[in-house]
Amino acid sequence: MAIIKLKRGYDLNLKGKVESNEVTDVKATLAAIVPDDFHGVVPRMDKKAGEHVVVGETLYHDKTHEEIKVTAPVSGTLKEVVRGERRKILAITIEPDGHNDSRTFDTKNTVKDLLLESGLWAMMRQRPYDVVPNPEARPRDIFVTAFDSAPLAPSLLTVLGDDVKYVARGVEALKTLTLGNVYIGCRPDETVEAPEAVIHTFVGPHPAGNAGIQAANVKPVNKGDTVWTLDIVTVARLGKLLATGKLDCTALVAVTGSEVKEPRLLRTVMGAAVGDLLADNLVESDKEQRIVSGNVLTGEHVTPDGFLRAPYRQITIIPEVAKRDEFMGWASLSHKKFSVHRTFLSWMCGKKERSLDAKMNGGERAIVMCGEYDRMLPMDIYGEFLIKAIIAFDIDKMEQLGIYEVAPEDFALAEFADTSKLELQYIVREGLDKMRAEME
Asked: 35 Cβ partners below 8 Å, 6+ apart?
């Protein structure tokens, strides 16, 4: 087992971490699938409002590749297909019937067909472009991350629980789909048993848990290469599907953040209503609170009547803006003001837990070429130059600077630390989409 040490990055230590492994079951009164969570898939509905669905039944398929399907996470009545501008599908809501009936899949089918039919295919991502994989392509390698290094993220092995026994079978199935190897990235104290996989141990701060970061430090993606990335939870779901013939859509969710009374683990279903997960557990405050489905760096801002978004394992609640008017503002000498850099005296307090809000502390400005992106990005690329090339849409430079091996989540930490206040994840996403349209 090779050990890879990453020095670049940063661990953001926030208040509201789950301390106990005790799990509470929560029944969802409503669940939803949000098509935007499956980038690269343009939905065409297979079901209509009012129809009954069971777990694993197709809700919609991709317009371009009809074999790519997204399935129901719970049995019940399809309540509504929520549409926005130009009839774009924003969400598909399902009212659970409490029976949890499930479709039975034929495990004699090929692994590829099983992944496509069950909807697990949509849980994977392809590099380049960070989209749902093209079924016609065969990956050079498959990279699986077995830990999440994001702020307040739960341990993926805790999320797996007893289903860790299905990982080996899932890896064995994935091995049949690639020309190369299935690589698994683990923490030193959290390893898994998978004889068919090549396991690497990663030591270092966030974003060490990103599958793309692990791929860049094991076997980088070059022009012409195709690799797939996914997490260990999806691998276990595949193994369980092969063993039982049924799709397991339960989700173990960590409810975290400084605005939570009791950070805890909840067992529910994929896409559960946020209101069910936060019931009577928010700190009473006259100030606005921001609910993030996911972690504070890459998660989606949702409303109290919103839904748990993919990858379905964390909700974080932080203050929206704790103090709108501060004495001396950025010039304050208070040890409570936080900065990744040594701008304030807070760096002398060590990495103690902090309660940070969603305030931007400044507006967008010119890029400061000081290497701060590189300090947050443990990849062999020049982050600042790549961002400039994307903004200019210089295809040649984008290729030379490593556009094919990055995803928006890889730049999330750099976006947090960025003195220029640029929306780096949005810039990278837009650049990847334009590149894909140009090349395909």
From this structure: 41, 43, 60, 70, 89, 90, 91, 92
CA distances from 238 to 171, 257, 327 (A): 9, 31, 55
pLDDT digits (tens, 9 = 90+) for 141-190: 999 999 999 999 999 999 999 999 999 999 999 999 999 999 999 999 99
Tokens encoding 211: 């599958």
Written as one letter, the residue type at 426 is: Y
Task: Calculate the alpha carbon distances from 376 to 114, 205, 351 in Å.
Answer: 38, 9, 16
Locate tokens 């193994």: which residue? 239
How far apart CA 353 and CA 335 sit, in angstroms, is: 13
For the record, the structure tokens of 300 come out as 């989606």
Whether 417 contacts 376, CB under 8 Å:
yes
Predicted confidence (pLDDT) per residue in 277-319, tens digit:
999 999 998 889 999 999 999 999 999 999 999 999 999 999 9
Residue 165 — φ and ψ, nearest 5°?
-70, -15
pLDDT, one tens digit per residue, over 76-116 is 999 999 999 999 999 999 999 989 899 999 999 999 999 99
Amino acid identity for residue 49 in this structure? A
> CB-based burial of residue 32 (10 Å sphere; 0-12 exposed, 13-18 middle, 19+ buried)?
buried
Q: How many CB atoms lie within 10 A of CB 374?
A: 16
Separation of alpha carbons 29 and 272, rounded Å: 8
Would you list the domain boundaries of the chain? 2-244, 372-439
Identity at 439, one-letter amino acid code = M
Residue 214 corresponds to which amino acid? Q
As beta bridge partners, residue 184 has 144, 199
Residues contacting 414, CB < 8 A, separation 6+: 372, 373, 376, 377, 383, 424
| Alpha-carbon gap, residue 256 to 252, rounded angstroms | 13
Radius of gyration over alpha carbons of the chain, in Å? 21
What is the spatial distance between Cα 35 and Cα 30, in angstroms, rounded to a whole number?
17
Pairing of the two strands 2-5 and 198-203: parallel
User: Would strands 314-319 and 289-293 be described as parallel, antiparallel, or unpaired?
Assistant: antiparallel
Stretch (H or E) spanning 5? strand 2-5
All residues at 6 or more sequence positions from 165 whose CB lies less than 8 Å from its CB, including other chains:
none
